[in-house]
């Protein structure tokens, strides 16, 4: 059974391959781009789970049309949810303030909005939903989270996106200040991928016959 992940991001693929290790049998894990697939994906769901499943089903359909067999398609949807901002930016995280707006600007804006809320509440969480569509069309979705706070100023250069403003009180630093192996061990995507790895292990014998 081959695994296709619905992304073209090589940094994300490196992380995915590291975490999705340890199966009974070898699985080729390719990005959507590496598999030669580039379908139009319309993310119009109202939850992380819905959008992840939309991506997975769209890419699964494209794989079938391309004649790829015994393929498992995975897709994720993730974002930052800030409590004092009513869960924003949430499922719109990637498009917050415009898809092409730099994260320096996005992060500065979010800190200013949290400061201006006057609530004193800086709690937030990263959420990642990962959906799977197995070769026979079986669908599964899991969710991983990590709790934290919005930092008072950005810090760290190891992460990307909102990592420089996501502060972990128990570590005393932002996720952008963690080494990659530390981040993988506690991140929302790492948690979701480990859950999905167990789901795949439950079913891999069926599809490797």
How would you describe this structure to a colleague?
The structure is a single chain. With 209 residues, this protein is α+β, with helices and mostly antiparallel strands. The protein has a single domain, classed as Maf protein. It is built from five helices and eight strands. The chain has helices at 10-19, 48-65, 103-117, 180-186, 188-207, and strands spanning 2-5, 29-31, 71-82, 88-89, 123-133, 139-150, 166-168, 173-174.
Q: Please identify the top-level CATH class.
A: Alpha Beta
DSSP summary, beta strand count: 8
Can you tell me the CATH topology?
Maf protein
Shape designation: globular
Number of domains: 1
Profile the largest sheet: 8 strands, mixed
Structural Rg: 18 Å
Brief summary of the model shown:
The chain is α+β, with helices and mostly antiparallel strands and 209 residues long. It has a single domain (2-207), classed as Maf protein (Alpha-Beta Complex), CATH 3.90.950.10.
List the helices and strands and how they pair.
Blueprint: E1 2-5, H1 10-19, E2 29-31, H2 48-65, E3 71-82, E4 88-89, H3 103-117, E5 123-133, E6 139-150, E7 166-168, E8 173-174, H4 180-186, H5 188-207
Parallel strand pairs: 1-2, 1-3
Antiparallel strand pairs: 3-4, 3-5, 5-6, 6-7, 7-8
């Amino acid at each position: 059974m081959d695994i296709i992940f619905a992304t073209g991001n090589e940094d994300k693929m490196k992380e995915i391959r590291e975490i999705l290790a340890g199966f009974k049998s070898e699985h080729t894990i390719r990005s959507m781009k590496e598999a030669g697939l580039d379908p139009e994906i319309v993310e119009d769901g109202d939850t992380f789970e819905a959008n992840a499943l939309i991506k997975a089903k769209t890419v699964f359909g494209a794989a079938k049309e391309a004649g790829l067999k015994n393929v498992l398609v995975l897709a994720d949807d993730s974002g930052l949810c800030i409590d004092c901002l009513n869960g924003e930016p949430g499922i719109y995280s990637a498009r917050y303030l415009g898809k092409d707006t730099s994260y320096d600007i996005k992060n500065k804006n979010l800190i200013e909005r949290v400061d201006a809320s006057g609530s004193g509440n800086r709690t937030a969480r990263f959420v990642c939903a990962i959906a799977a569509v197995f070769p026979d069309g079986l669908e599964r979705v899991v969710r991983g989270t990590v709790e934290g706070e919005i930092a008072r100023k950005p810090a760290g250069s190891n992460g990307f996106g909102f990592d420089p403003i996501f502060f972990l009180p128990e570590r005393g630093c932002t996720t952008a200040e963690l080494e990659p192996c530390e981040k993988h061990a506690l991140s929302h995507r790492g948690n979701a991928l480990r859950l999905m790895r167990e789901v795949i292990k439950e079913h891999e014998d069926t599809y490797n016959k």
